[in-house]
Write a structure and sequence with these properties.
277 residues; alpha/beta; TIM Barrel; eight-stranded parallel barrel; globular
Length: 277
Amino acid sequence: MLVNLKEILDPARAGGYAVGHFNVLSMVMARGVLEAAEELGKPVIIGIEEKQLSICPLEDFSFFAIPMAKRAKVPVAVHFDHAYTFDKCIEALKYGFTSVNYDCSDCSFDDNAWRVAELVHTAHAYGASVEAQLGFVPEAADVKDGRIDPATFTKPEDAELFAGRTNADALGIAAGTAHGEYLFRPKVDYARIKAISEATGLPLVLHGGSGLSDRALRRAIESGVSKINIFTDINIAGAQGATMALGAGKNLLTDIIPYEVHAIRVQAAEKIRLLCG
């Protein structure tokens, strides 16, 4: 069933668990994730980010993701992640996305808050939810010497003020994780996450969930994270599925796809089981 982000994350925050957000750039990837969620009877979020639209345009994504979410036997939010302009967010809402992550983290604090508040007003009229972004989450490949500057992390006092000014439904934070495949061991600031959770009362979002250990993910949830973004793990799994198919002598796409779906389903199920308990 198709729901918005708030309908999924408010119960997660109250229940002390997290919901996995998986970027799915094709129907094959979406099948694997949704089959895993239905197998476990757990809610899930499927999405795409603006930087991935060259692979799958927003309209094309909406044509398969939204009907699949509606048919699902579990709650599914369809999310536009890391959108950088108001107009692109509105485009997603018009296509039927039920939540957007309006990432204005490169702006000044005041500009970020003003932009997000403006979108929240519009998105709520659509019945959709807004995830805001406060703090800088780098690309793992850009992190030198495995050290992320704590000065770029989200400050609890800023988050409290930001939440009050924007009325956002969820808050993406920076606390030591990075996007992409880790080439270093991330050092997550759990005390900071807990302080932000207590200051804002919002469901918190941890970007860069792929590659974190099970223990790290559980500690993040215990500290107040309600949504964890995962892409690299299922991206790798799908590629490994294709490799297995080729190794088994399959040389037609129609024979390779089931291997990809299976590999993604197994990986997604592992993450959903861990996050949702």
